[in-house]
Specification:
The protein is of the alpha+beta class. It has 2 domains: 56 residues; 133 residues, Nuclear Transport Factor 2, Chain: A. Helix content is 40%, strand content 30%. It has 6 helices and 7 strands; from the N terminus they run βαααααββαββββ. It is elongated, with a radius of gyration of 22 Å.
């Protein structure tokens, strides 16, 4: 039987950073291109019209584009840390590396089925699920079909993940959806909540691993 964690562990609604944070630190390329395009257009027009004001505005826009680009390259946001941690978990799960996968979780990590608000099971159940992936549910191949990440706060990121997975005892690829919340613990980034959102488009049950 799974050990259910009390209602006090129910997550509060996530607080996300502003869109500007995402545009600069997580997906800087669109903003960089937009600013550079505007800047170059202003520089060309300023030269054609011999307008010092347009030339200055164009130069400022190009400098801003450069700053956004390097800020995005130099700063790793919590959302990006969450994405990297998620990819590492997938790689270790596919390889059947249970200990390596468990090392990516906090000691008080929980697993939900269906929604974040569903009753949670403990790290022991997460280990049991991972153990099944190198046994009767051994993964033969896996493909990440979608991965979106977001920064929730300065120490927390969240990932929504979709996979198509072929297991040894199955006849076809199995589509799944997951939500992973990752937070900074000391110098490391660890998963503290894993939500198994959907299996074949429906909420799974804890018995799926048996």
């Amino acid at each position: 039987m799974s050990e259910f964690v009390g209602a006090s562990r129910s997550p509060s609604p996530p607080t996300r950073h502003s869109p500007m944070y995402a545009w600069i630190f997580e997906s800087p390329l669109p903003l960089t291109i937009a600013l550079a395009t505007v800047g170059l257009a202003l520089l060309v027009r300023g030269r054609m019209q011999q307008s010092r004001a347009l030339a200055i505005a164009g130069g400022v826009s190009v400098l801003l584009a450069t700053a956004v680009f390097f800020a995005g390259r130099l700063v790793t946001s919590p959302g990006e840390h969450a994405a990297r941690t998620t990819e590492a978990l997938v790689d270790r799960a596919v390889a059947g590396d249970v200990e390596g996968a468990i090392a990516l979780f906090t000691d008080d990590a929980v697993l939900n089925y269906g929604t974040r608000e569903a009753p949670s099971v403990s790290i022991r159940d997460i280990r049991a699920a991972l153990e099944s992936l190198r046994g009767r549910n051994r993964i033969e191949s896996n493909r990440i079909t979608d991965l979106d990440f977001v920064t929730l706060d300065e120490r927390t990121g969240e990932v929504e993940l979709s996979c198509s997975t072929a297991v040894a005892r199955g006849d076809s690829a199995v589509p799944t959806r997951w939500i992973l919340r990752v937070r900074q613990v000391g110098d490391a980034w660890r998963i503290d909540r894993l939500t198994f959102r959907a299996l074949f488009g429906r909420a799974p049950s804890p018995g799926i691993w048996r």
